[in-house]
Xanthine phosphoribosyltransferase
Amino acid sequence: MKILEDRILKDGQVLGHDVLKVDNFLNHQVDPMLMQQMGEEFHRLFKDEKITKILTVESSGIAPAVFAGLAFKVPVVFARKHKSVTLKDELYTSVVYSYTKKVSNHISISKKFLNSDDRVLIIDDFLANGQAVQGLVDIIKQADADLAGIGIVIEKTFQKGRELIDKEGIHVESLARIKAFEDGKVIFMDEANTINANN
Ligand code: G4P
């Protein structure tokens, strides 16, 4: 998605060899106009899939997921990372290891909000090692719901997440696919749109 790639080049900062900081429009400050365009793009990509629910994980998946939900006109559920006093029983849970933060989180979703009638689209901000998405896929299996596909805002193709998902034969669409970071430069899979992003 050209507008997203342009925004990454304008506002993204490459940290080290494998991290892209995008807190200007996605991970801290959120650009709702861009989120809306991304929601519409996810709708265009998955509109024939009879989606009944969007699923994500808190916190940074919520903004793109809500705009996808708006485009599909379906509810959005986010898995919680911390146990809530109002969410005690009747939970689907899975364990997600974060390579970036080096911690394991239990993620959970109330059984009230996901069931075997649902056809689910997972939305997340980053696909890196694929742990978050795998936790959500596990929860969808526990609910005996159908997984229609996975929509990702920014995929880092050089990490192992995509390979893990492809092995399961799941339909994945990423709005921006990053092949590498080289000397502070973002290299996209479609190389036409590659310039310096080292501001
Ligand atoms: P995964 O997202 O594919 O599971 O991979 P990984 O375990 O490496 O990611 C752990 C966390 O780091 C996730 O956020 C993920 O979104 C984020 N992340 C991974 N790569 C990048 C990157 O290049 N840039 C940024 N900004 N984030 C990255 P999380 O722990 O779920 O946190 P949050 O959603 O509460 O922000």
Summary: The chain is about 30% helix and 35% strand. Confidence is low (pLDDT under 50) at residues 194-199. The two ends are 21 Å apart (CA to CA). The domain at 2-81+92-188 is CATH 3.40.50.2020 (Rossmann fold).
